[in-house]
Amino acid sequence: MRLTEVTPERLAGVDPSQVDLFDPEFHAGGDPHTVWAAMRERAPLHLSRLPDGRSFHSVTRYHDACQVLGNHREFTSERGSLLNQLGHGDAAAGKMLVATDPPRHSELRRPLNRMFTGRGLARSEHRIRAAVRALLARALDGERAPDGERSLDGEPFDLAREATMLPMAIAGALMDLPEPDWADLVQWTGMAAAPQDPVFMIRNSHATLAIAHHRLFEYFEQQYEARKGTEGDDAFRLLMTMRDGELTREEVVVNCYSLLLGANATTPHTVAGTVLALIERPEQFRAVRENPDLIPGLVEEGLRWTSPASSFLRYATEDVELSGGTVPKGGAVAVWVGSANRDADVFPDPYRFDVTRQENRHIAFGYGAHYCLGATVARLTLRIFFEEVLDTVEEFTLAGEPRHLTSNFVAGLTGLPVLARARRTAEATA
Ligand code: HEM
């Protein structure tokens, strides 16, 4: 996420009691990092009251975030884990992985773990690489002058928009979803994750969310029917057959929805946000170019820096002490992941983007039982993306203003116009 520097003057100007973190607009046009810094310092357990009477606490410090996300006995996921659902409960509670507490959560999660980690993924690597190469080829195409010579003033390429298709190369394949459907699925998951954003909004945010849910659930129901009696080793069929086919059609459908949303709503924002961080800090790009062993460090720092899954909600099952006070039984708590990942108690010099950062214990993938199922997949995608960038791109430059997503759930960019200059290898220039 592009960052206004957190200066002492800005920090002093923030009054946490006037902050409205619920407002999606604030995350697109405001300065959440300065506000979060002020909250970590002065209001680590912060109560927000909405005009309609609903309320929630916010935690912004790293250790509080880990306590809330990591202790399902004190903080349940079964009343919904998204701020948008505040006070409405979750119809998928106890059915969808992310909205289920252990022990049921472990029963659902264990069979999926194997598919989303380890050897199963090696087969996906070539698909991801092909998708990344195609994306970068399009980015570099703008550079080609009509006579075939390369010129530097090519066409701007919207990296944020183009990156939205990347997760389908793996999630689409892992779930065996037909490729012609991928563009629609990306559009609908975008609408579901950020219904308030002008890029996705149809009429209003409620209508947008309803349309997205309708389309996605109807789609997965059709896919379910088409798969009956067929065989395959994809995640969709695994959900249909796990525990002797115990899951209902509705349970399979909501979990497919959650898998696809988890993949599509996050990884592209780390791709775009990390490229933006590198554009703003060319010395970091050069450091990785000179030493590709730093790619894993770049990926982890990119995840910490962008923290695309911005907030998650839990409800206290009893009165719980956290720094700064008590969350009463039944109270909702929003964990601000991007803030926890800038906590100076854990990350020295937290506003410095540093590909050589040691002990980068970020919680971009969450913490505890719900730790992201797709973390290995996401890391693989990001590693391959940057390997290919280093191979083919000499530099990215900004060709316009980045546009931030309007959402209190996902932090990211909906627009990142860049110019990509191709790397001239010795072979190519000979
Ligand atoms: C940069 C990429 C990603 C980030 C930052 C991210 C972040 C997260 C976070 C913070 C959680 C915890 C939610 C909670 O505590 O309530 C989570 C859970 C989850 N993620 Fe991801 N995610 C990413 C990519 C993916 C991908 C690629 C997939 C699927 C292929 C995926 C699927 C899921 C699922 C299914 C869960 C629920 C796990 C559970 O409840 O046990 N995510 N993710």
Which key terms come to mind for this protein?
binds protoporphyrin IX containing FE, 12 strands, 430 residues, three-stranded antiparallel β-sheet, five-stranded mixed β-sheet, alpha+beta, globular
Give the second-level CATH assignment, the architecture: Orthogonal Bundle
* Sheet with the most strands: spatial strand order: 1-2-8-5-3
Bound molecules: protoporphyrin IX containing FE
Report the span from N to C terminus: 39 Å
Q: CATH homologous superfamily name?
A: Cytochrome P450
Radius of gyration: 22 Å
Low-pLDDT ranges: 145-152
Q: Percentage of helical residues?
A: 40-55%
Overall domain count: 1
Number of strands: 12
Would you tell me the overall average pLDDT? 92
CATH topology: Cytochrome p450
> Which word captures the global form?
globular
- Summing up helix and strand content along with how strands pair, one would put the structural category as alpha+beta
| SS element count, helices | 19
Could you characterize what this model shows?
The protein is α+β, with helices and mostly antiparallel strands and 430 residues long. It has one domain: Cytochrome p450, CATH 1.10.630.10. It contains 19 helices and twelve strands. The strands form four sheets. The protein has a five-stranded mixed beta sheet, with helices on both faces. A three-stranded antiparallel beta sheet has the order 4-12-9. A two-stranded antiparallel sheet has the order 6-7. A hairpin with a 5-residue loop joins β1 and β2. α10 packs across α13 and α14 crosses α16. The radius of gyration is 22 Å and the shape is globular. The protein starts with 7 loop residues before the first helix and ends with a helix. About 2% of the residues have low confidence. Protoporphyrin IX containing FE binds next to α9, α13, α14 and α18.
